[in-house]
Amino acid sequence: MTADDRDDIGLLFETYKLHAELTERVAALREGLNKLYSSMVAGIVAASVLLHRLAPNAETTWVLPILGVVVSLSWMFALHSVTGRLAAKHNVLVFLEKSLPFNFLERENKEFDERNFVRRRYSELLMPGAFLVLCIAWLVFLSTTCPYQPGV
């Protein structure tokens, strides 16, 4: 191996490390998004309990489940965007690894696939999806038990 080859591998490895660090930052962003949206969901639940105790027959009871649907969909779209970005970064890292002496991610993917684990991309949507279903059920319940009558 010549000095130029070692320099090229060194440069490639530095690029790989930088890209891996950027991937970790995107993963941290995903965790921050989950914390933010979890807090918003908790706020909606707390507000619904408070509203039900203060004014159980108020016309504003429709606002909270609609807000819940909006928050759920927003959460799902944000997670989809971030996980798509992570998948793209992962693919670039796998491509860069092909020029390195050891393929960490390629071997990890092989082990992961052999054990049939659920991809995080799908399991992450469980929480916002469940909240979305609950908010839609809440809206259906409200529409059947207390139909909105403007001006009454």
Secondary-structure blueprint of this entry?
Blueprint: H1 3-54, H2 63-97, H3 104-114, H4 120-123, H5 126-145
Helix pairs in contact: 1-2, 2-5
- End-to-end separation in angstroms reads 85 Å
Tell me what portion of residues adopts beta-strand conformation: under 5%
The averaged pLDDT comes out at: 81
Overall tally of structural domains: 1
Shape: elongated
- Return Rg in Å: 24 Å
Helical stretch tally = 5
Element pattern in H and E: HHHHH
What do you see in this structure?
The chain is an all-alpha fold and 152 residues long. It has one domain. It is built from five helices and no strands. The N and C termini lie far apart (85 Å).
Keywords:
152 residues; mainly alpha
Brief write-up:
This protein has helices at 3-54, 63-97, 104-114, 120-123, 126-145. It has 152 residues and is an all-alpha fold.
